[in-house]
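Might you be able to consider the sequence and fold that I enclose below?
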Amino acid sequence: MRTVNEITGSIIAAAMKVHKSLGPGLLESAYEACLMYELDKQGLVIRNQVPLPVQYDEITLDTGYRIDLMVENTVIVELKSVDKLLPVHKAQLLSYLRLANRSVGLLINFNEVMLKNGIRRIVNKYQQ
C-alpha cells in the first residue's frame, strides 16, 4: 500500500509529464483525461467526476458537486485551467476534503508556463 506522500508524488510527476507534453491553454477536461491515463499506467486506482453529496442535519443533498479525481480513494485532485489560482479554489478543495472526509488534496492549475507554480497541496486539519 502506498503512502499519501507516495501517491501525491506520483500525481505530481504524472501532471508534470502531461503538462510538458500539452503545455498550458487547453480545457480542464483534456488535462483530466491525460492525467487519468498517466496515473492508470502507474497502476493507481482512479475515479473521476465522483459525486459529492452534502450532509446537512439528517438529510443528504445531491447538489451537483463533483470531485475531479479521487486517487487510491485517498487523495482528492482538483484540476484547473485558469489564469491564476484564487483563494476560492483552495476553499473549494478544502470543502471537498471535509465533505469526503479525506486529509490531503492537490490543486493543480495547468494554465501555467511552469506547472510547479500551479500546484498546491492542501491538508484538511479537521478530518473526522
Observations:
- Residues 4-123 form one domain.
